[in-house]
């Protein structure tokens, strides 16, 4: 899909499904890999450690609910063994919604 109708530049839309009441997007981030470990601060000794789909809700479009499934990359640090998810700048993780939904 070339047009990012979500208008969230940090996300790349892989798929979209539409039902009577919902839009469901499947996305990946466009962010680069993290440059250091958030726990021990070591310069990259990180490796990719699987992906997990997480659902976030966004502003309604055309009177339908919008859900965004993020295929989120998980990393593991070789130095301290901590695992962590890539950063999602557009999402409020504690509430599982997009930040722009809060501003409304
Ligand atoms: Zn570490």
Largest sheet: 5 strands, mixed
- Bound ligands: zinc ion
CA-atom Rg in angstroms = 15 Å
Number of strands: 7
Q: Characterize the overall form.
A: elongated
Mean pLDDT: 91
**Total count of helical runs of at least 4 residues:** 1
Low-confidence stretches: none
What is the N-to-C succession of helices and strands? Answer: EEEEEEEH
By helix and strand content, what is the structural category?
mainly beta
Strand content: over 45%
Oligomer, anyone?
single chain
- The separation of the N and C termini measures 27 Å
Total of domains: 1
- What portion of residues is helical? under 10%
Protein model, in words:
With 104 residues, the chain is mainly beta. The protein has one domain (11-99). 5% of the residues lie in helices and 51% in strands. It has one helix at 99-103; strands at residues 11-18, 22-29, 46-61, 64-77, 83-85, 91-92, 97-98. A hairpin with a 5-residue loop joins strand 4 (64-77) and strand 5. The longest helix has 5 residues, at 99-103. The protein is elongated. The structure holds zinc ion. Zinc ion is lined by residues 37, 39-40, 42, 77, 79-80, 82.
